[in-house]
Design brief:
With 295 residues, the chain is mainly alpha-helical. The protein has one domain (3-287): Farnesyl Diphosphate Synthase, CATH 1.10.600. Helix content is 72%, strand content 1%. The chain is built from 14 helices and two strands. Strand 1 (95-96) and strand 2 (99-100) form a beta hairpin. Helix 3 (48-59) packs across helix 10 and helix 10 packs across helix 11. The model has no long low-confidence stretch (mean pLDDT 94). It binds geranylgeranyl diphosphate. Geranylgeranyl diphosphate is lined by residues 45-46, 48, 78, 81-82, 84-85, 90, 97, 156-157, 160, 182-183, 220, 223.
Length: 295
């Protein structure tokens, strides 16, 4: 089993345990709500962010159990963002991960509340790091601070506000700023929070900061390239939204992704063998780069 598949299993069972603990009443409306939460979380997506958390923990000789809990908490936040992103007042999407979006399967009210619950429950999981995994109170506060600030009004939510309000014709710097916030910040937090389960030196922190920032952007560029490829294959016009492909074109987007991949791998050279899972993950992300998009 690969590193990523291994992590998917561990994260799924931790998320299952969180559901069991956080929704105690198994009858009436709360039983239905528990189904809404389960529907949104399972089957999951790639669980890429938790994989980053575990890989960063490995690079810093961190605490594996704590990294699994942090990865699960980040996955709760990521899934909240997807539920809310699909709502009619946001991206208005009917499908997510090949099935009905949560608000379509249930209703908007329950979907909104499911997002709120997942976001809030993530912080229950994080606040239990000292009790469950002997992480110091100081490190726990730092982990919570990084995740909350990357998810909140100056992080992912800021990116979503810009996405909601900006025209498809924004400039390249504006698009990059949007992507760094909407997509990159939570990815960056996944890396840094994993590292903090160990005791990274200042130099190691700086290296991981560079890595986290670079792959956050790579993630969005690859997502835009994938969308462009699907539009061509399905002969459907791309929706009018700002994207790297729309602003830079296919070749320059690939070139930018490949530069960032190079920068991220260079940044973590100092970890030697301990950095192998981090390299594996960025390579996995870039593995679709040779993709051929012909309009
Ligand atoms: C609603 C506050 C709020 C934020 C929403 C995550 C997000 C911000 C919007 C999703 C829109 C989107 C398609 C962004 C592109 C990159 C991205 C985050 C894709 C989805 O993440 P994956 O590919 O999803 O990791 P899986 O299904 O694998 O978990």
């Amino acid at each position: 089993m690969s590193f990523v598949q291994d992590i998917q299993k561990e994260i799924d069972s931790t998320l299952e345990a969180v559901l069991q603990e956080q929704v105690p009443q198994r009858r009436g409306p709360l039983d239905k709500f528990s189904k809404v939460l389960r529907y949104a979380l399972f089957p999951g997506g790639k669980r890429f962010r938790p994989a980053l958390t575990m890989a960063a923990a490995k690079a810093c000789d961190g605490n594996k159990g704590a990294a699994v809990s942090i990865g699960a908490a980040i996955e709760l936040i990521h899934n909240y963002s997807l539920i809310h992103d699909d709502l009619p007042c946001m991206d208005d999407s009917c499908l997510r991960r090949g099935k009905q979006a949560t608000h379509k399967e249930f209703d908007e009210g329950l979907a909104l509340l499911a997002g709120n619950a997942l976001l809030t429950d993530a912080f229950v999981v994080l606040s239990e790091l000292p009790k469950r995994h002997s992480i110091s109170a100081e490190s726990t506060i730092e982990i919570i601070n990084i995740i909350a600030s990357c998810a909140g009004s100056s992080g992912m939510v800021a990116g979503q506000v810009l996405d909601l309000k900006s025209s498809p014709k924004i400039s390249f710097p504006e698009l990059e700023f949007l992507a760094i916030h909407k997509t990159g910040k939570l990815i960056y937090a996944s890396v840094m929070a994993g590292a903090l389960t160990g005791k990274p030196t200042q130099e190691e922190r700086k290296a991981l900061e560079k890595y986290g920032e670079a792959i956050g952007l790579v993630f969005q560029i690859m997502d835009d390239l994938d969308d462009a490829k699907s539009s061509v294959e399905q002969r459907t016009p791309e929706p009018p939204r700002a994207s790297f492909v729309q602003i830079l074109g296919v070749e320059e987007s690939k070139q930018r992704a490949s530069e960032l991949i190079g920068e991220s791998i260079k940044a973590i050279k100092i970890f030697g063998k301990r950095g192998a899972p981090l390299v594996e993950l960025v390579e996995l992300l870039g593995s679709k780069l040779p993709l051929n998009i012909q309009g």
